[in-house]
Design a protein that fits this description.
By secondary structure, the protein is an all-alpha fold. It folds into two domains: about 10-90, no CATH class; about 95-120, no CATH class. Helix content is about 65%, strand content about 0%. It has five helices and no strands. The longest helix has 21 residues, at about 100-120. The chain is elongated, with a radius of gyration of 19 Å. The termini are far apart.
């Protein structure tokens, strides 16, 4: 009996196929991934990172609706890598023109101005 290269549960494989359905909706010509590798990465998110299948699905679905993240999170590996950042953005959205958005914009401008004063223009 050949040794399995990847370890995963049925829920991991179903989640991998569900994720790929989102990618196919954006690009019907996407090549089919190695679903076993994808399922293994989802298992790692569950077992090592302590994520539930619902958390994984919720964050991936949110990223898929976001104009920036939808083209940058195209695999469970990328999802796992960016999971904390995505969760933070998901919980704390910044709307352009909002008070928080303006505050962040001002903070970035001030930081840039401090850098210019210290190091000159880049």
């Amino acid at each position: 009996m050949p040794k399995r290269r990847y370890i995963f549960d049925d829920i991991d494989l179903r989640c991998a196929k569900w994720m790929f359905s989102f990618i196919l909706a954006m690009n019907p010509t996407s090549r089919e991934p190695n679903f076993e590798a994808w399922a293994n990465e989802i298992r790692l998110m569950r077992e090592r990172d302590g994520r539930t299948p619902k958390q994984i699905a919720d964050v991936f679905a949110w990223a898929n609706k976001h104009s920036f993240w939808r083209v940058n999170i195209l695999s469970p590996q990328k999802l796992r890598l960016q999971f904390d950042r995505l969760t933070t953005e998901m919980r704390n959205p910044v709307k352009p023109g909002s008070a928080r958005g303006e505050m962040l914009k001002d903070a970035v401008t001030l930081t840039y101005e401090k850098m210019v004063r210290k190091y000159g223009t880049v």
